[in-house]
């Protein structure tokens, strides 16, 4: 039997902490940190995530502007908006919600955001700094996962084996790097990996970021492993679920994060932290 780790509760503590800090800035008559979220088109899932970000900003008392643009927005129009936000001294963080419509090149947009306002940590400058273990904006989901490990006291990773399933630029690769920076022995598995089940079974820490509903069952998991589920999928009843078959795996691991209320809320909390970090870099 394992302990279920509610990221939602850890995130709540983090947000309460941020609220105190922002109240303090207000009391001192200082400028308030500001996050701008840009949403292109009306992808339903994106709308729901963006609302979560808005609610969190309101909770901590951070300024939040949501700019919604029509699906037909051109790449040039989006680039000129980003240029304006880059130059706006009142803006600390810029987040362009992904995915973007197919006619816009995500890479060009990510490259256009000022690395000093890239609170997602997606810009190549910030990704490079992560690889060099230099201070930077760390991508929010991976940062949230590390914070979960720290909170459960499982952050001395020397001699531990970590297996990351999934190699995306926004989760798989950066979480592998963060685990490596903490001295774990890291393996990245993906769709071309042979004998993936047995590779995963070696993991002391298993990170699931593949995007396949309930793909990982107890046969993939070593007894006592820590299992972090990054997946956001729908099951056969259209209920939100992770990449891990939670009910099955929770019988064999030591800690497991649920979906929802696991990694997702941590992502939002880390976004707010990154925005405050950006503010302090600017304001001192
Ligand atoms: N530029 C960019 N940055 C992102 O960080 C980014 C993005 N684009 N595109 C989409 C993904 C996804 N994402 C989530 C954040 C919070 C929850 C979250 O809080 N989920 C709640 C439940 C939400 C619900 O019930 O719908 C939970 O897991 O408990 C989920 C997903 C950020 N993303």
TrEMBL record:
PROSITE patterns: THF_DHG_CYH_1 (PS00766), THF_DHG_CYH_2 (PS00767). CDD domains: NAD_bind_m-THF_DH_Cyclohyd. It comes from the Bacteria. Residues 139-281 form the Tetrahydrofolate dehydrogenase/cyclohydrolase NAD(P)-binding domain. It holds the Pfam family THF_DHG_CYH. Keywords: Amino-acid biosynthesis, Histidine biosynthesis, Hydrolase, Methionine biosynthesis, Multifunctional enzyme, NADP, One-carbon metabolism, Oxidoreductase, Purine biosynthesis. Belongs to the tetrahydrofolate dehydrogenase/cyclohydrolase family. Catalyzes the oxidation of 5,10-methylenetetrahydrofolate to 5,10-methenyltetrahydrofolate and then the hydrolysis of 5,10-methenyltetrahydrofolate to 10-formyltetrahydrofolate. This is Bifunctional protein FolD. It comes from [Eubacterium] hominis.
């Amino acid at each position: 039997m394992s302990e279920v780790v509610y990221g939602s509760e850890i995130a709540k503590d983090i947000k309460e902490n941020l609220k105190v800090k922002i109240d303090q800035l207000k009391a001192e008559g200082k400028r308030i940190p500001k996050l701008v979220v840009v949403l292109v088109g009306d992808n339903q899932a994106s709308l729901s995530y963006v609302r979560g970000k808005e609610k969190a900003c309101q909770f901590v008392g951070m300024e939040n502007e949501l700019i919604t643009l029509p699906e037909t927005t051109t790449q040039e129009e989006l680039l000129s908006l980003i240029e304006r936000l880059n130059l706006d001294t009142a803006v600390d963080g810029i987040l362009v919600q992904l995915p973007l419509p197919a006619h816009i090149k995500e890479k060009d947009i990510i490259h256009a955001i000022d690395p000093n306002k890239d609170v997602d940590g997606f810009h190549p400058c910030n990704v490079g700094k992560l690889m060099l273990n230099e201070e930077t904006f760390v991508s929010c989901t991976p940062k949230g996962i590390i914070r979960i490990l720290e909170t459960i006291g499982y952050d001395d990773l020397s001699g531990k084996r970590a297996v990351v399933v999934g190699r995306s630029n926004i989760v798989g690769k950066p979480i592998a790097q963060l685990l490596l920076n903490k001295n774990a022995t890291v393996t990245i598995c993906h769709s071309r990996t042979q004998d993936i089940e047995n590779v995963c079974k070696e993991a002391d820490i298993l990170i699931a970021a593949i995007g396949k509903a309930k793909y990982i069952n107890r046969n993939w998991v070593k007894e006592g492993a820590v299992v972090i589920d990054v997946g956001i999928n729908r099951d056969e009843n259209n209920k939100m679920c992770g990449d891990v078959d939670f009910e099955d795996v929770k019988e064999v691991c030591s800690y497991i994060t649920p979906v929802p209320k696991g990694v997702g809320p941590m992502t939002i909390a880390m976004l707010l932290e990154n925005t405050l970090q950006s503010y302090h870099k600017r304001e001192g």
